[in-house]
What does this fold into?
Amino acid sequence: MQTILVIDDAQGVRTALQVLFELHELRILSAASPAEGLSLLAREDIDLVIQDMNFTRDTTSGEEGVALFHRVRSGYPDIPIILLTAWTHLETAVELVKAGAADYLGKPWDNDRLLTSARNLLRLRAAERESRRLTEARRRAREKLAGQYDLRGIVFESDAMLQVISVATRVAHADVPVLITGANGAGKEKIADIVQANSACANGPYIKVNAGAFPPDLLEAELFGAEAGAFTGATKSRTGRFESADGGTLFLDEIGNLPPDGQVKLLRVLQSGEYERLGSSRPRRVRVRVIAATNSNLATAIGAGRFREDLYYRLNVIELELPPLAERREDILPLARHFLTAGFVLEPAAERLLLAYDWPGNVRELENTIRRAMLLAPDRRLGIAHLGIESKSSAGARGDDVPGSNEIQAALSRAGGIVAEAARELGLSRQALYRRMDRFGIR
It folds into this structure.
């Protein structure tokens, strides 16, 4: 049960609040002085503080309440505080709200408004605790994974990437092909590196081929080699990538671009370990772990007759589907900071824009954006003007330090309606975000 601490020197006020909240099944602790209240805070697990502004008879300046507020804020910054104030202290209360107070109510207070405010803050407090618990659980899971496996320095915080990497490390030792799917620039090669680094053949050759980088008539020779005279310009024998990778791993990127003849040969080598060089009928044997990657929909390619179904199932023993960066926004800022050269920093408005942007080019686009921004930032502080992505952002981020309506709504949506998480993403206090929500009519 969540606990509310009431700090007020008036016994009648403490009793009235205790009755009010206990009727709604909330646990109440009371303190008659700041010292008693601070003592209870040190001993008890408090979720919300409701405090008066004056505690000494005939004192009306509000200075005691201000001092208590700052003591609570400094010692317990995560606990929300509601101020109970007389009309003469409204200006002081407003200043304290700017300093982090959650709400203020004048005496005599409205029970319904006080209950609504308290419940909202307690709900937020519970959500923040759950968010911290999940964040800590993810951190421990990442550290455990990094302690058990070689993650090749990959940077991530999202659950989506944790799941992909966990599967990649578990299947790394299996002597079966792996197919990695995902959009261009999402990091498929990095996942392939993790599989190879933790495989039984990690100490063998690791050869990478981008099937989309070669003309179809040369790709087959690149993979399987060619004898002298096998085609125009082949003046001497050529060793293929499969032969070079013998005893190790071959990473075939953009496998969907492999021509039909190459698909037949690839299927054969996966089934039997045998192949022939172009221009030769002598079979050669290799033992190679194949990791393939594609940004294409191979099922569609099969239906269109561009990719062999039997090859697809041979490659797709284990499939690792890598989500685009827009679907794992928790990774955006850690990656952006990772790409920064020492001494460069991102301004809060720039971070908000990075989070709001859709990243159609995924991690590769983010890296290029940061590198370009560092070249354009003379004082080593990267602002919105240096990123060059504002006009392409579909989330409505604005060019000043004030988040716009669309940006706020997008942040709230990503945070599941939890205002505290949205505020952290936007670089605002909860109170500042509430004020902007009121301004834009966002509920």
Observations:
- Confidence is low (pLDDT under 50) at residues 391-400.
- The chain has three domains: 3-128, 152-323, 326-440.
- The first strand starts at residue 3 and ends at 7.
- The chain has 19 helices and 14 strands.
